Amino acid sequence: MALPNNNPTKTNAWQQLTNHFNEIKDIRIQDLYKDDNRKEDFSLTLNDLSVDFSKNRITSETIKLLVDLAKEVGLQEAIESQFNGEIINVTEGRAVLHTALRSNSEDSVLVDGKNIKPQIQTALRKIRSFSNKVISGKWKGYTGKSITDVVNIGIGGSDLGPDMIVESLQYYKNHLNTHFVSNVDGDHVSEIMKHLDPETTLFVIVSKTFTTQETITNAETLKNWFLKSATIFDIPKHFVAVSTNLEAVDNFGIDKKNVFPMWNWVGGRFSLWSAVGLSISLSVGFDNYRALLDGAEEMDIHFRNTEFENNIPVVLALLSIWYNNFYMAETEAVLPYSQYLKKLPDYLQQAIMESNGKGVDRNGDKIDYQTGTIVWGSTGTNMQHAFMQLVHQGTKLIPADFIGYKESLYGLTDHHKKLMANYYGQMDALAFGKTKEDVHLELQVSGNADKINTLLPFKVFEGNRPSNAIMFDKLTPKSLGKLVALYEHKIYTQGILWNIYSYDQFGVELGKELAKKLLNKQ
Ligand code: F6P
């Protein structure tokens, strides 16, 4: 079944949302919070995850109308089409099945009439066996020494996902040093080479196409560096590849046995769940990698089977559309209160902006409404001392996701109490602000009554700035998998509502072509 194709702005629900928006647009979170049940009524849970979306400029009518919109544009059918392996990436003629990669179910998923589950299981077994050999030291380099360093060579989806996950799961990391080379900037690879010993380094070249300029250039540079100490016969012990392009991998000199598969039905930015995640499995062990997949699967099941009003990715997608298309907010902040998640905003920028940064709809017609949001962010509490001034008192409306954990990993409770006090404090400050009266009183009490006339307007916080509190018990591989899958499903939901194709990325091509032409002229 083809994806539904509806201009969202021409639907009944959109008309109703427009009327509703005009009625409530000046609503204040401060006033909405006079309802004692507000928090309870606007919270959702999924085992160790809770999402409190009470600090938004919405009423239950807003949610109802947004859900009506999702129903009217055929979101449920679109979700089924994705999970069933239909060709929903129409412009590239592909199914989109990163969900199949993490599925534990025995049910078949067909692509071109063939069940893909057995190939996924084979790839997982290969990842497990290879990771075990390298981690245990049984895999030896060309001089008989065990591997100490793993270098992931890739860019975009072949880098950002594994890099972000390895960084986020540092607590679970083993003895292997993991490095990521992505930029074609030679200084990047040179800095990394300084720390490597050819006898004990394993290179994982990750490129779905195996033609990406940056990756192939870095891989060649590292191979040449390696060959200064070793011979081409030593390559199989030190170079492995993850790719769909077997011929190019072979030409590069990589042993067939050392090739891990990629498939056309997995998009680059959704590929960390495939063998693209090999560096993750090498860094934290296969069991932790599997737990990451299991967490994602838990979110998949929730997304597929839960009615929209209680469906976490759907509700977050709808809220984002509310701000993007009605309040005309252009950006969204992602603010994790865990230093481990410092690479999450970068990762999400590719996932969200490469997917939904589209200006034509599913008919190929130019769109006259806003699509993809601009996503940015950094970790709390550091960002409180950086950009939060603008979020609190600037002229722009910036809805923000605050991601937090009930427990810290090392158990420094004093730190964690402070961290979480800031987490809640920021959201309260954004929502409730500080009134003129409060500032007046504060200046008086602090003996600064003489400054009231000059300082008062600068110290007022208007509040009414929206946020979502996304809270897990603890940062584990499983909870991280759930978090990433949550955002993946939010992306797809928004793409369906905006009537765009989320799974192609033609917008990255022109710059690449022009760079190639310039290079050929030199
Ligand atoms: O930036 C465009 C893109 O195609 C991404 O979608 C992809 O993740 C990245 O390039 C890398 O591509 P490849 O894995 O083929 O090297």
UniProtKB/TrEMBL annotation:
Task: List the PROSITE patterns hit by this protein, alphabetically.
Answer: P_GLUCOSE_ISOMERASE_1, P_GLUCOSE_ISOMERASE_2, P_GLUCOSE_ISOMERASE_3
Q: Does the keyword Transmembrane apply?
A: no
Q: Which GO terms describe its biological process?
A: gluconeogenesis; glucose 6-phosphate metabolic process; glycolytic process
Which Gene Ontology molecular-function terms are recorded? carbohydrate derivative binding; glucose-6-phosphate isomerase activity; monosaccharide binding
Record keywords: Cytoplasm, Gluconeogenesis, Glycolysis, Isomerase
Q: In which pathway does it act?
A: Carbohydrate degradation; glycolysis; D-glyceraldehyde 3-phosphate and glycerone phosphate from D-glucose: step 2/4; Carbohydrate biosynthesis; gluconeogenesis
Main subcellular localisation? cytoplasm
Q: Which Gene3D superfamilies did the record assign?
A: Glucose-6-phosphate isomerase like protein, domain 1
Which residue ranges run through the membrane? none
Q: Which GO terms describe its cellular component?
A: cytosol
List the active-site residues: 354, 385, 512
One Pfam family name from the record? PGI
Q: Does the keyword Protein transport apply?
A: no
Catalysed reaction(s) here are: alpha-D-glucose 6-phosphate = beta-D-fructose 6-phosphate
Q: Where in the cell is it found?
A: Cytoplasm
**The protein's Enzyme Commission number:** 5.3.1.9
Checking HAMAP family in the record gives:
G6P_isomerase
Its function, per the record, reads: Catalyzes the reversible isomerization of glucose-6-phosphate to fructose-6-phosphate.
By sequence similarity, the record places it as follows: Belongs to the GPI family.
The family database entries (NCBIfam families) matched by this protein are listed as:
PRK00179.1
Listed name of the protein: Glucose-6-phosphate isomerase
Origin species: Polaribacter dokdonensis DSW-5
**Which gene specifies this protein's sequence?**
pgi
